Each structure stands twice: as C-alpha cells, then as structure tokens.
C-alpha cells in the first residue's frame, strides 16, 4: 500500500509539471501568425523574373504586436542553394487586424524555387511558411520591357531668330536591363501647353546602351517664342511605344498671386539664356578686370566735336572774305 501511494504521488507530480509547462508555453506563444501567401510575377524579362510575394500577417491577440519583420528567401529547387533574400519591416500590427506585406525578389527565369517566408517579432523568430514555385521558365517575357528608362531632360536656348527659338534638348537614358539595349527610334515633340498644337518634332535614335549605364542623346527643336511647351519623348520598338517621358519649357511663364488668385504674365528675355550671349558676357567681364562696362554706341566724341566746330568757323571766315573781295 505504501508503494502504491508513492507511485500515485509521483504520477501526480509529473502530471502537474507537464500541465504547468503546457500552460506556460501557451501563455508565452505569440499572437501573430501567417494567414496566407500570394505569389505573382511582377516583371518577366528574357533572363529574369521579379516575383511579388504578398504575406498576410494576422494578429488575433488582445493587444498590439511588437515590431514585426519578414525575411523572404528563395532556394533553387534542384540544388537547394539560396539564390536571393530580402527583409522587410512591417512595424506594429493592431489587435484583430491583418496586414498584407509585399516583397519583391529576383530569380532566374528557369526551373523552380522554394520560397520561405519567416516571421519575426521583436527580433524573435516565430513562424515559417514555405511555398513551392514551378515552371518559371514557361513565363512569357514582357516584349515591351526594353530596360530603357528616361531619367531626366535638360533644355538649353541655342538660338533666337525673329519670333522663333531653337531649343537644345538633352535626354538622359538609363539601361536598367540585363544586357546591352537595342538601337531604337525616339520621337521628340514640342506641344503648346494650352492649345495642344504641335510646334515641332524630331526623330533620333537611342543607340546601343550598355547595361547599368546612362547616356545622353541630344537634338534641337524650333518653336515660336512667348509660348509654353510640353516636350514629349517617345521610344518606339517597331510599331509600339515602349517608353515615354516629358518635360516643360516655359517661354511665357506665369505665376499665381496667392492673395487674389490672380494670374500674372511674366516677361522673359529668351536671349539671356543663349549660350553665345553668356560667353560674350564672360569675355567682356574678363577684359574689364571684373568691372561691368556699358555697350558703346556710334557717335562723335568731345574731341571730334571741337575739331568739327573749328573747321566750320574757318570755312565761314573764308566765305565772308571771298564775298568782300567780290
């Protein structure tokens, strides 16, 4: 009987210990979980696929979460090697809320991949969700994705003739693709901002641009003075526009007076922006030792005026003498 009592007490202690451990584990368990994971191709090129992985994080607890972070990894299905990874912070998630977090990851356009989504809270790893992706090589590349981007445009007044202005256009092209770009046609148009009338257009080519480099392509357009223009740049591949950009040239700028909301026209001297005029001003400034000089106008100096008066008096005296002799 005494032996049986010992056995019962020992079993009770073990049961109580296991129960206590289970309760402690449940108490410390995080209230965050991964509800679902969606994967879609964001961009497909001839050699690469950008996957958009959206993870839905649910907070089913009674309060806000800690600092949430997602670690996204892509493993090659054949070799098991890690090929890409990215980390995204999601901040804190309110109670009873679901937060979608989108992450982009680049993989080669071949084979399949294992996508691991790891959930962290306050730097502590909580959950892991794994999704298999197959048939990446069967995705059709976007034929309109040429890799070229119009980053910026600069404008320079090069000449003014009568009522027309010649504007130099510098176009900054960056190749963000995976290889050297094709030589494509590029159309530059100047469209009057208010009426939408086309003032001028020019065709040039992009040339072949190496990957991850930026080049400048330039051209001249001729437009009437005292108007505002939208400069459009269109890159064509065969019969399709594959990239576009635009800038603004204001030869008749306006400004808004906040008090009365009145539109006031501002005069602009286009010649002041000409490259030749700026060079001439710098040369004149250098010759005078940094002292601005006024432009000289044709006319008589004071010395020449005195000589002219003396000659006139002399001629009058001779004329009178001749008259007296006669």
Q: What does this molecule look like?
A:
The chain is 20% helix and 48% strand. With 326 residues, the chain is α+β, with helices and mostly antiparallel strands. Among the domains are: 32-138, Sandwich (Immunoglobulin-like), CATH 2.60.40; 148-265, Immunoglobulins (Immunoglobulin-like), CATH 2.60.40. The protein has a four-stranded antiparallel beta sheet with strand order 4-3-6-7, with no helix packed on it. A four-stranded antiparallel beta sheet has the order 11-10-13-14, with no helix packed on it. A three-stranded antiparallel beta sheet has the order 1-2-5, with no helix packed on it. A hairpin with a 3-residue loop joins β1 (32-44) and β2.
List strands and helices in order, with pairings.
Elements: H1 2-28, E1 32-44, E2 48-59, E3 68-76, E4 82-91, E5 97-108, E6 113-121, E7 124-133, E8 148-161, E9 164-175, E10 185-192, E11 198-205, E12 214-224, E13 228-237, E14 240-250, E15 254-257, E16 262-265, H2 275-287, H3 302-325
Antiparallel strand pairs: 1-2, 2-5, 3-4, 3-6, 6-7, 8-9, 9-12, 10-11, 10-13, 13-14, 15-16
Q: How much beta, percentage-wise?
A: over 45%
In the CATH scheme, the class of one domain would be: Mainly Beta
Indicate the CATH topology of one domain: Immunoglobulin-like
Helical region count?
3
- Named at the architecture level, the CATH assignment of one domain is Sandwich
Multimerization status: single chain
Calculate the terminal CA-CA distance, rounded to whole Å.
178 Å
- Which ranges are low-confidence, i.e. pLDDT below 50, for 5 or more consecutive residues? 18-28, 285-300
Q: What does the main sheet amount to? A: 4 strands, antiparallel
Shape verdict: elongated
What is the string of SSEs from the N terminus onward? Answer: HEEEEEEEEEEEEEEEEHH
Mean pLDDT across residues: 79
Q: In which order are the strands of the major sheet placed? A: 4-3-6-7
CATH superfamily of one domain: Immunoglobulins
Structural class: alpha+beta
